[in-house]
Amino acid sequence: MNIGREQALAYLRQMTRIRRFEEKCAEVYSAGKIRGFLHLYIGEEAVACGVMPELSREDAVLATYREHGHALVRGMPARSIMAEMYGKQEGCCRGHGGSMHLFDASLRFFGGNAIVAGALPMAVGFGLADRMRRTTRITACFFGEGAVAEGEFHESANLASLWKLPVLFLCENNLYAMGTSIERSEADTDLCEKARSYRMTAASVDGMNVLAVAEAARAAVAYVRAGNGPYFIELKTYRFRAHSMFDPDLYRSKAEVEAWKHRCPIEALKTRAREAGLIADAEIAAIEADTAREIQDALAFAEAGTLEPVLNLTRDVYARERRVVKAGAS
Amino acid sequence: MSGTVRINYRDALRQGLREALLRDPRVFLMGEDVGRYGGSYAVSKGLLEEFGDERIRDTPLSESAFVGAGIGAALNGMRPIVEVMTVNFSLLALDQIMNNAATLRHMSGGQLNVPVVIRMTTGAGRQLAAQHSHSLEGWYAHIPGLRIVAPATLEDARGMLFTALQDPDPVLIFEHALLLNVEGDIAADPQPVDIDYAAVRREGTDVSLITYGGSLLKTMQAAAELAEDGVSAEVIDLRTLRPLDDATIVASVAKTHRAVIVDEGWKSGGLSAEIMARILEQAFYELDAPPARVCGAEVPVPYAKHLEDAAIPQVAGIVAAARNLVK
């Protein structure tokens, strides 16, 4: 294990934060505190946690509706995310977005997109702007393997490659587009091959191994930042929970789910770090305790949050207030 | 006349583009055939040579990707002008326009602005049949978060783009294909134009003819014919289809007490229906007759000239509708 103690602890801390945060989300969802769709990232934590530290604060991040983990690791306070899911105005989007639409412009975290592949064309535009302004910023765009079936993936891959744009395409392949397995939806399940067909450099990596993810991301970020054009990484992962809280999860076998759970990215890191003598049990316990405190604080914050006055309902539809028109009868 | 220039609508649009490119380094134009070809309607002819391929970008036939890229570039500090060849093609980018451009500001709790401008050709009259001739701007005007404008005059063709680029929100500009060769004299020195207000293009007292875009000239001609019969028609050019300038519409109806709405779009669920509803909501007791509409026939626009003519508003129909109200 060629990482230091601090780094191992940092990965473990971040993955634990996502796991425990989302477990709490599921719990309060069941209690009716969170409504709408709730898509859990549990099982896939190594992807966001491996990639995000390789990006700079200036880089842009675009993600999907399964983005609580990305938001947390990017630096959004748990308070702000939980309050958003509670629909409170103290939430990151004042309760306008909810679970699927977390944004934080100050962290250059641009959502939170609930249209599969909907963020990919925008990511191309982010890259185009950075290239035209001669910055060294890059744009990281997370999406699921289901997005590869959308035209937007192909249009965006072509455009990014044609214009050599600084975009990192991060395909979280959890094998199921909602309930449809990749074998049942793709004529060719080799996703890297699709990216390469647009002359994009592509790599596939074990998305259950945070160190492997980080290593792949590091190489890709360096490549993209150096101006070589876009880069595609397939992150092979698995969600342990159902697609959303409404999903009865009838399309995959319990044995398959159990087999993947044995590859839990958090347990895998713990095991390897313990074996390497990098982490002591007391440190793991401390991370759990810190995380529990953070989540408790976030919950209390969300519970105490206030509702946006309905008077503000149509505020922020437009940035520029149009002159008030009053003529004839109201 | 001193201080004026003779210009057509196409050249006025190009002047607007040039000026925007000259005045703001963040502005760039992208779309299908905007560069080497010179624009499918020759609007951007010569701009590639003047501004280079970094700022005049030919795109692949990927409406969703390049419209979405315009949205992304706008979010990331640029001021993109995206050209979509015709409104029918914009449907391939509808997801990006509707689900991203229109929603991001509100959905993010006011954190994000999307200052993108999307231009497209609209309307019938060139015998291009049912996949190149529709007027779907009324559809787009349905969507909160978008600003929809339709330049009908040479001044607006030249000036609306720059104003739209100053707007923090997404603006869609609809340019009617039949206006491109219309010529006239305008001030040589461009004056700023707003994208908020409707304009009274002709004052009158007997009936309000409310229209926009490609139907404005036909409506002006109808008003001239009505005048010969002693009917004084007022012509309102909406200019901005969202948000609608209710005040100007209502003030006109309060004066004339009669309204005819002229719109190349379809009636059902359309912009003309919305305008009529607002007149009824806000000026019902001002009316001396039920408001009338002259709109596109409810068919996919056909190819054959006589059928195409029959499918969209014409001067005779506008005159007849107005006469029917004042008789």
Count of distinct structural domains of chain B? 2
| Poorly predicted runs of 5 or more residues of chain A | 323-330
What is the overall pLDDT average of chain B? Answer: 97
CATH class of chain A: Alpha Beta
Strand tally of chain B is 14
Number of H- or I-type helical stretches of chain A: 11
Number of strands of chain A: 8
Rg estimate of chain B, integer Å: 19 Å
CATH third-tier fold name of chain A: Rossmann fold
Strand content of chain B: 15-25%
How would you summarize what this structure contains?
The complex is a heterodimer of chains A (330) and B (327). Chain A is of the alpha/beta class and 330 residues long.
What does this structure look like?
The complex is a heterodimer of chains A (330) and B (327). Helices cover 42% and strands 12% of the residues of chain A. Chain A is of the alpha/beta class. In chain A, strands 2-1-3-4-8-7 form a 6-stranded parallel β-sheet. In chain A, helix 8 links the parallel strand 7 (201-206) and strand 8 (231-236). In chain A, helix 1 crosses helix 3 (68-74). Chain A is globular. The model of chain A is unreliable at 323-330 (pLDDT under 50). By secondary structure, chain B is α/β, with parallel strands linked by helices. Chain B has 13 helices and 14 strands. In chain B, the strands form 3 sheets. In chain B, strands 3-2-4-5-7-6-12 form a 7-stranded mixed β-sheet, sandwiched between helices. Chain B has a 5-stranded mixed β-sheet with strand order 9-11-10-13-14, sandwiched between helices. In chain B, strands 1-8 form a two-stranded antiparallel sheet. The longest helix of chain B has 15 residues, at 9-23.
